[in-house]
Design a protein that fits this description.
Radius of gyration of chain B: 18 Å
Strand content of chain A: 35-45%
Number of helices of chain A: 2
Shape of chain B: globular
Number of strands of chain A: 21
Helix content of chain B: under 10%
Order of helices and strands of chain A: EHEEEEEEEEEEEEEHEEEEEEE
Largest interface: A-B, 37 and 37 residues
Mean pLDDT of chain A: 90
Order of helices and strands of chain B: EHHEEEEEEEEEEEEEEEEEEEE
Mean pLDDT of chain B: 95
Radius of gyration of chain A: 18 Å
Helix content of chain A: under 10%
Oligomer: heterodimer
Number of helices of chain B: 2
Number of strands of chain B: 21
Largest sheet of chain A: 11 strands, mixed
Distance between the termini of chain A: 7 Å
Low-confidence stretches of chain B: none
Structural class of chain B: mainly beta
Strand order of the largest sheet of chain B: 1-7-8-9-11-12-13
Strand content of chain B: 35-45%
Largest sheet of chain B: 7 strands, antiparallel
Chain lengths: 320, 310
């Protein structure tokens, strides 16, 4: 099963829909059961292991805001004696406290879109949490540049906490219409909602995809990383500001390249998600299907089109 | 596709070899992608070569040309590069139908032995030439457009490694002496640079990433070559396992008149990190050798690109 849509009444039914879809798509259900007021879910496919939990007005841990939605983390192994948030090889800060990404603001019934892809493996969920407002979760394996240990990723519309604020630091390019940082692999935030797994330079764990102050102590960047000039330049800014093409109305897709910061201050190309691309959605409606040759993709706003996220969006590969 | 590596006796021999390569290379002939010579004139101090490329399936007519000239007193040996939408036997090299006029993309060569690399298919040819310790380059032919042939039927790029007033020595340093992958010019908004694309509406469009003869400053010009326009390319190195990663090179436009376009990618030409890299290296990507090229005399991390030798 590569695509499914439906509606869910809240975080736990939403997580259950993802569970059933994942199992139907060949994922192994390691655990599904109660966890506090929510449910915990552990999934495996090959070497990849991910854990999710529905949250009902709860904080991931002390110090974080209370959220309603779904937490997502990855790990190296599954320990059935331990809860979802204490598994071996999870994203942790330098004080060994858990970090997660999330899909929050699930206050009522919402429409969901579920995507499954192979080669490499990826599972994606996009939920319309309020009319016109979309959040995502995605996890799987990046297309890797070279041969190295790692390559798993988790991506959410949020980090561990619902940190969406109205401050200028949340703007993608410092523009008010680009408020939301929910774009997959948006590194413009100081601490983004994205982590990649790698063993490199003496660190074996999850690297924070962010502009600065990486939560795990190790930083990765993506195509949004700003350069030294004003306006905020980045690989994606040049792409975004020159699409869609005046010529034909088409907005070419941009791979979400990820780079790891090395001890010498340089960045190594690490990989990119095969089934997720940046997209200027000026000419696309949310959840619109479009074709590129034999491929089909579905367009989504980073948050809400022509509202908090302007025309920033992304496309998920659609197979059905 | 076809490629050839060799050493030309001088800049004139280099053009004769290019003529032979494009019209007679066995791989091009086997694919029915050999180019047609429309004019070949060789006198004591100039050569003039006009060609038509057939496209990959023989359905295109792509017109390009190279004209060599020299001034030994001033010490320059040039190739002027041009393209057009047709061929007129009655007209000069500089007056072909809808060709480039004014300052043209050029290659500034010399009258000495010149190592070279040619790569071609039925849609484009790329030339790299080593002059002393510097590298010159040219791209003649179609890019890979982000559009259908009906929307953008003639995406002709004329790219060189020098522009400005004709007759410039290869040793000149400055933003007018840059490759088509990351072009510049002396001043902002120059109407001609080393990268000229015939746009969808038929106008020749200049691309420019840098300006200023002293600092080679980067700025947000109307038309840029991505990702060279991104200043932080200087912090990218090779992958964790030491392999080099290639990025596409895309021609972009965003101007105050409201035209926003990613026209398309160069064919077989990619950005690559220069970290622990060097011009002349061969890197293998997906089983294919790629030649590492530096942008004329520049050797910083951000100043390299790779040419697929296939």
């Amino acid at each position: 099963m590569a695509y499914q849509t439906g509606t869910a009444a809240g975080p736990t039914p939403l997580l259950d829909a993802l569970r059933l879809f994942a199992v139907a798509s060949g994922w192994q259900e390691l655990r599904w059961g109660p966890s506090g007021p929510g449910q915990q879910l552990s999934l495996r496919k090959g070497e990849l292991i991910f854990h999710l939990r529905s949250a009902l007005d709860e904080a991931l841990r002390s110090g974080y805001q209370r959220v309603t939605g779904i937490f997502l983390v990855g790990s190296d192994q599954f320990d059935p004696a331990q809860p979802w948030n204490n598994q071996p090889g999870m994203p942790r800060d330098p004080s060994k406290r858990i970090e997660a990404v999330g899909l929050y603001e699930v206050e009522g019934p919402c429409t969901y879109h579920l995507f499954s892809s192979e080669s490499p493996v990826q599972l994606t969920m996009v939920a319309e949490v309020a009319p016109g407002v979309y959040h995502h979760l995605a996890f799987g394996q990046l297309v890797k540049y070279g041969d190295y240990p790692g390559g798993a990723f988790v991506s959410g519309a949020f980090g561990s906490s619902d940190a969406l604020t109205a401050s200028a630091s949340d703007y993608i390019f410092g523009d008010t219409q680009d408020l939301h940082f929910g774009l997959p692999f948006n590194d413009y935030k100081y601490a983004g909602g994205n982590y990649v797994r790698a063993a490199a330079d003496g660190f074996d764990g999850w690297w924070s995809v962010c502009q600065a102050s990486p939560i795990t102590g190790k930083r990765a960047i993506s195509v949004w990383e700003e350069g030294p000039r004003s306006p905020r330049e980045s690989l994606a800014n040049y792409w975004w500001s020159r699409t869609p093409n005046t010529l034909n109305g088409i907005a070419p897709l941009l791979p979400l390249y990820v780079y790891l910061e090395r001890p010498d201050g340089f960045f190594s190309p690490f990989g990119y998600p095969a089934h997720l691309r940046y997209l200027n959605i000026t000419h696309h409606a949310p959840a619109e299907v479009f074709a590129i040759g034999p491929e089909q993709w579905m367009a989504f706003p980073a948050h809400s089109k022509n509202n908090k996220s302007g025309v920033h969006g992304y496309a998920v590969r659609l197979e059905r | 596709m076809a490629f050839e590596i060799g050493v030309a006796v001088n800049y004139r021999d280099l053009l004769e070899r290019l003529r032979t390569f494009l019209t007679k290379h066995p791989a091009l002939i086997a694919a029915n992608q050999q180019w047609t010579q429309l004019r070949w004139v060789s006198d004591a101090t100039t050569q003039e070569l006009l060609l038509r490329a057939p496209g990959l399936a023989g359905a295109d007519d792509i017109y390009c040309g190279v004209r060599s000239y020299e001034n030994p007193t001033s010490g320059y040996y040039m190739w002027d590069l041009n393209g057009s939408i047709g061929f007129s036997s009655a007209d000069t090299f500089y007056a072909q139908p809808s060709c480039l006029t004014g300052w043209l993309p050029m290659m500034s060569l010399w009258n000495e032995a010149t190592p070279y690399w040619f790569v071609a298919n039925g849609r484009r040819v790329v030339v790299v030439a080593k002059v002393s310790t510097l590298y010159q380059a040219a791209y003649l032919g179609f890019i890979l457009p982000y559009a259908t042939p009906g929307q953008y039927p003639y995406p002709l790029l004329i790219g060189g490694s020098m522009t400005g007033q004709r007759g410039r020595r290869y040793s000149i340093t400055g933003p007018n002496h840059r490759h088509f992958v990351d072009p510049g010019e002396d001043v902002q908004n120059a109407s001609s640079t080393a990268t000229m694309l015939r746009g969808p509406a038929g106008a020749w469009l200049p691309f420019q990433n840098t300006y200023s003869p002293t600092t080679e400053s980067r700025y947000d010009s109307a038309r840029q070559v991505w990702p060279g326009s991104y200043a932080y390319l200087s912090v990218f190195r090779e992958a964790l396992d030491g392999t080099y990663v290639l990025m596409p090179i895309v021609l972009s436009q965003g101007n105050s008149a409201g035209d926003h376009d990613l026209f398309g990618e160069l064919d077989g030409v990619y950005q690559v990190s220069g970290f622990n890299n060097a011009a002349g290296n061969l890197i293998q990507v997906n089983g294919v050798d790629h030649l590492v090229v530096q942008n004329v005399f520049r050797t910083s991390v951000r100043d390299y690109w790779a040419l697929r030798l296939a």
